[in-house]
Amino acid sequence: MSLELRGVRQSYGDVEVLHGVDLTGRPGEVLAVVGANGAGKSTLIRVLAGAQRMTSGELRIDGERVDLRSPHDAHARGIRTVYQELSIVGGLSVTENLLMGAFPRRRGGLIDWPEAHRRAQELLDSAGFGAIDPRVLAGRLSVARQQMVEIAKALAGEVRVLVLDEPSAVLAGSDLDALFALIRRLRERGVLVVYVSHRLAEVMELADSIVVIKDGLIIAATEPARTSETELIGLMAGRRLEQIYPARRETTAETRLAVSRLSRKGEFEDVSFELRAGEIVGLFGLVGSGRSELARCVFGAEPATGGSGAYRSPAEAIAAGLALVTEDRKRSGLVLGMTVLDNIALATMRANRRGPLIDTAGRKRRVGEMIDRLGIQPGGCATMPVAALSGGNQQKAVLAKWLLAGPRVLILDEPTRGVDMATRVDIYRMVDDLARRGLAVLLISSDLTEVLGATDRVLVMREGRLAGDLRSEATTEDEVLAYAIGQAA
Amino acid sequence: MTGHIARIRMTRDVTVTAAFVSLIVLLVAVAALTSDTFLTQTNLTNLLKQMVTTGLLAFGMLVVILTGGIDLSVGSVVAFSGILTAGLVSGLPIPVAMAVGVLSGVGFGLINGVLVARFGLAAFVVTLASLTTIRGLAFVYSEVPIAPEDPAFFTLGSAMAGPIPVSTLIMLAVFVVGGVFLTRTPAGRSIVAIGGNAETVRLAGINVPRHVTLAYTISGACAGLAGVILASRVGIAQPSVGVAFELDAIAACVIGGASLAGGRGSARATFGGVLVLVLINNLLNLYGVQSFWQQVLKGLIIIAVILVQRTNRVRG
Ligand SMILES: Nc1ncnc2c1ncn2[C@@H]1O[C@H](COP(=O)(O)OP(=O)(O)OP(=O)(O)O)[C@@H](O)[C@H]1O
Ligand SMILES: [Mg+2]
């Protein structure tokens, strides 16, 4: 079905964030929406999903004006949405998450579990995610798998419009391929797919048309054939980006972190590596290879079962100058109910005191500086609840928290997830700058280009073991991938 | 745009506070206009004294609720610390006996905290168990009420500083110091943050179990103090006192906008909740409403206040 937005305005309180958006999507089309962090993409999507009623403007479906009153309303019209933030219930099985109350029943009213699991499996299969077992607790799945469940959930019943808000941010490798295949199948069936992503390469590959949104306005509408990644980045950022990755630095010989034969039962085994001052080391691996688990263990968040080099608790790790930016900001990076200020200051509260009290003036100044330095939008957001920031800006807030601690070893687990291109470049530059000042950085990423471009060395993990240690300059994406899947020569 | 956002947030806070203050003013006005006794010296002094128990318990409860927990044992602690103090008065100097009473509350709170934080037991279950255990201990200590003869025992609960009871000042001090603790100290901020997301706090290098234990200990201390003051005010300590006091404490927190899921709530708003609750109680008493009907009305009023709060928040 075709979808038309006319002059859509949307405000939070008195602040207007969409200033009259016009947008048209046709059946059987992949419509990509790109824009910087905080541009208003997710807000636009919430309007489409009926999760938020537009302040003014109109929505037309097949030419007819409709008023979406609730998510349920949108759902009933065949508009399905996968939000940027996961909404999976961890304590329920995948089946329960997928069917969400619409359970098949036996006579007498009891739930027919075998049938429920079968339906769930069918849904997963049809989405191309058949590898997921519907019987397990959703909370046990990796973030990538949870995202896939979320997508499969949106496919139940009659789908006419599928809206995906950064679905690929947590996916990599074959999972990503499965998603693309799914989108292409849906397109063939005449479904309109609205696709939000910061990964421009995939946008260029998938989209039929692209709109660029900036500060709540559509500033360009184009097609992959008529534009380039560089042009899109320029439009989004309002400035030209000359070089994405900074030049490499000299590394020193001083060891900052030495991990030897480290193991954690069931997650990774016998891992040894060193980080030197001034070095940026990438850590690549497929989902389930144990990269994040390794990082958490080194940081003391989880006890090791063998080997040395890991800290016993986060407090001890922090005291030794470590910082860990975790991959899931909602679960372990932010306290969503608190302000930006509280969040950014969380890891440094004890260090910045006046007598028994927090040095509030100093804290405000330091946090303010960090907000400026990372360009967290809207500027001066210190007193806002962190939940009111856009996804990418929330990610920057987590980074700010750890930079404020002045670490000597910085472990970044997917730090650019959901972060727009221009900001990514800023983050790479900042990490480079920190490395120049002697920091050792471990950069975990599923983005091959990033893991090679931003680092000096790449460690590759496969099934819980270190499978390769490659010099970034001297290797290729194919080679790294070959190590990751165990087919290296 | 930024200044804009800050301004909106501020106006919203101001409206909520204003709504709260007007509610309290309204209650006072209604009371003053419809009852001859409300504005009398005796009633006002009474009101101020009655506030003390609910107030102290509510602050302790707030700290626990902020971590995402609950402390059902406070009413029993009130009984135990009161009767223990009254019993000890015959053998010990009064200040020492009172200190021991308060410390018994600290001890119970500590045990609750350790069970919840170190052993990972559910707060509801742990404090429900200690509710009955501590109540039992109070009766074991003395089945009959104890009424100390020494008039000095009554000082803490009945002394006045000008027009204001000393005990009320103590309670106010707890709120002021407690408010500063929650908003301006690392431990206080950690407690609030733990209720929001304990994993994030743990990874920030903060000792979560220690802070959770601290929260229950604070609640125990407040309950211990409340018990001692209550015994001193009434002049007689009963092992059966304080049944269902935890409910008023929880209600005050909730009326003040605290979230039982943790992470949201403030000392100031909780104090507002205490005022609302105590005023309602006092009014219903003055009107001579029969006590069972009082309970019904109080329940309904609490729901109404929370509903008003909720719509306010959603609209904002
Ligand atoms: N609940 C909210 N309350 C107030 N402001 C909000 C709220 N949600 C979003 N905003 C603001 O609206 C603007 C647009 O946010 P939105 O989430 O739509 O951005 P986005 O384009 O999806 O960004 P990202 O790429 O980072 O996900 C931002 O300035 C953000 O701070
Ligand atoms: Mg977004």
Automatic annotation (TrEMBL), chain A:
It comes from the Bacteria. Gene3D superfamilies: P-loop containing nucleotide triphosphate hydrolases (3.40.50.300). Keywords: ATP-binding, Nucleotide-binding, Repeat, Transport. The gene is rbsA2_2. Residues 3-240, 239-488 form the ABC transporter domain. It comes from Acrocarpospora phusangensis. The keyword Nucleotide-binding applies. GO terms for molecular function: ATP binding; ATP hydrolysis activity. SMART domains: AAA (SM00382). It holds the Pfam family ABC_tran. PROSITE patterns: ABC_TRANSPORTER_1, ABC_TRANSPORTER_2. This is Ribose import ATP-binding protein RbsA 2.
From TrEMBL, chain B:
GO terms for cellular component: plasma membrane. It comes from the Bacteria. Keywords: Cell membrane, Membrane, Transmembrane, Transmembrane helix. The chain crosses the membrane at residues 96-115, 122-141, 161-182, 212-231, 243-262, 269-286, 292-308. The keyword Chaperone does not apply. It is a multi-pass membrane protein. It is found in: Cell membrane. The keyword Membrane applies. One of its GO terms (molecular function) is transmembrane transporter activity. CDD domains: TM_PBP1_transp_AraH_like. This is Ribose ABC transporter permease.
